[in-house]
Amino acid sequence: MRIVQMDQHAALFDAHPDPSFAVDRALAVVAINRAAERHFGVGRQDVLSRGFREAFPVLVGTFHEELLTRAVAAGRAAEATADSFSGPGARLRVRIFPVGDGFGVVFQDVTATERAVVDLAVSEMLRRASEDAARNGLAELQAIYDTAPVGLCVVDRDRRFRRVNARLAEINGAPAGAHLGRTVDEVVPGMSAQIEPLFERILATGEPILDVEISGETPAAPGVLRHWRESWHPLRDATGTVIAVNRVAEEVTARKAAAERERLLVRELHHRARNVLMVVSSLVHLTAKGDPARFVPVLQDRLKSLARAHELISRDRWERAELGALIRLELASHVEGDHVHVDGPAVPLSIDVAQAVAMTVHELVTNAAKYGALSRAAGRLCVSWRIEGADVVLDWLERGGPPAAAPERDGFGSLLIRVNVVTRLHGAFEPRWSPEGFSCRIRLPASELVDGDPSA
Questions:
Q1: Residue 3 phi, psi (nearest 5)
Q2: CA–CA dist 357, 350 (Å, integer)
Q3: Please, which residues have CB within 8 angstroms of residue 153's CB and are 6 or more apart in sequence?
Q4: 125 contacts 12 by C-beta, under 8 angstroms
Q5: pLDDT class for 430, splitting at 50, 70, 90?
Q6: Helix (H) / strand (E) containing 404
């Protein structure tokens, strides 16, 4: 077993901000950096040459041990994020990758908004007097640099790329080699207005800039606005002069889009909940004006109708419902045999309109079941609708039931229908009573039903 001599690459390995160590193929520890010593509470001499489980007992039985064991057995890199073993609520990303005859292991705390994955040892490499030492260290540095899950690059004082990793090349839509020697504006035109002030600030102050958001387009996705969270670190020569800037970029486009969708969803849910509560409040208020003894069952029936409408809407991702499906749902318990006929073209309804239409149809069905055609075995009900000019016209025709006579005064059902059809939807309700049975025509402006023409 070969123990890595830390004196050779101390600046490279020990300056890395994330806990890191290396194991051979027998899972014995061959290197550990200072961050890992602090993180695990161990000393370097206490763990070198010891087996992984003996050196880091806190990892025994964890997901991290399982991932490392599988990666070494398979002989390939692995990466995953899981709950931290060091405390509740913390999350760790672990990267395992082949290095020399063994494997490197890097832990990164990803619970913070942004972790600058920066290898500050680049500046140390620039200050090395020995060309051989720099060349030997570069191979190990490149392995870490190229497998980083964020975009990394070094830009000199002339704004020209001197080093680029694979992830940044993917972000910018150009091979890493095509970046070298070219300016930032040549590779990603149009970004200078945001980047130049940050660059000037680092050169003037020598201080890093952390957690800044950059937005724009790149050749990788022309016409698509993308967003990155970035951290910029100065790189100095032996005299302390800033000679370049190390830039770390993590794309957060999907994260911002998800946050915006969540914001819109919360706002929409708030709107829907408020509307439902208003509808329920109206139902309670109007139902209470009727027979007190029938208040509870009548209100329950109307609330169930409202719930059925919401169930139908939820099937279409809370965007809209369809008129025919809603009518058939209200008539579901009366469609046995051939005494109910429903026919009409597809007419989409917005959520609020679907609520009003559902309660209207419910009142018509309830009246037909108690006093009209659906109260007798020989009764027949035909519900049809059509698009007539700028309106959707629905005809409700009952035959074979008791003779229908106009009531002396409108009951709650008629009042609720008029509130929904006339007041809410700006339509017309035309009831007709005759010895053959009840019928009515409902005329609804298509412009009130959905955004756009329902006939389209």
A1: -90, 125
A2: 10
A3: 161, 163, 164, 165, 168, 179, 246, 247, 249
A4: yes
A5: very high
A6: none
Tokens of 68: 């490392």
Residues 264 and 21: their CA atoms lie apart, in Å, by 44
| 175 and 239 inside one domain | yes
Pairing between β-strand 348-350 and β-strand 320-322 as defined by DSSP bridges: antiparallel
CA distance 239 to 441: 90
Same domain, 218 and 337: no
Per DSSP, the residues of 143-191 read HHHHT-SSEEEEEETTSBEEEE-HHHHHHHTS-HHHHBTSBHHHHSTT-
Tens-place pLDDT, residues 103-139: 989 888 776 533 443 344 444 554 554 455 445 556 6
State residue 212's pLDDT score: 87
What six digits make up the tokens of 419? 């509130």
pLDDT given at position 447: 87
* Residue 281 burial by Cβ neighbours in a 10 Å radius (0-12, 13-18, 19+): exposed
The pLDDT mean for the chain works out to: 78
Residue 117 covered by a domain:
no
| H or E segment and range at residue 227 | strand 226-236
Please give the order of strands across the beta sheet that includes 391-399.
Answer: 340-343, 380-388, 391-399, 439-445, 428-432
Q: Which residues pair with 21 in a beta bridge?
A: 32, 105
456 domain residue, yes or no: no
Task: State both tokens at 123.
Answer: 């500046």
* pTM: predicted TM-score of the whole model, two decimal places: 0.40
Last residue of a domain, one of 214, 236, 251: 251
* Crossing angle (nearest 10°) for helices 323-330 and 295-315: 140
Identify the pLDDT of residue 341: 92
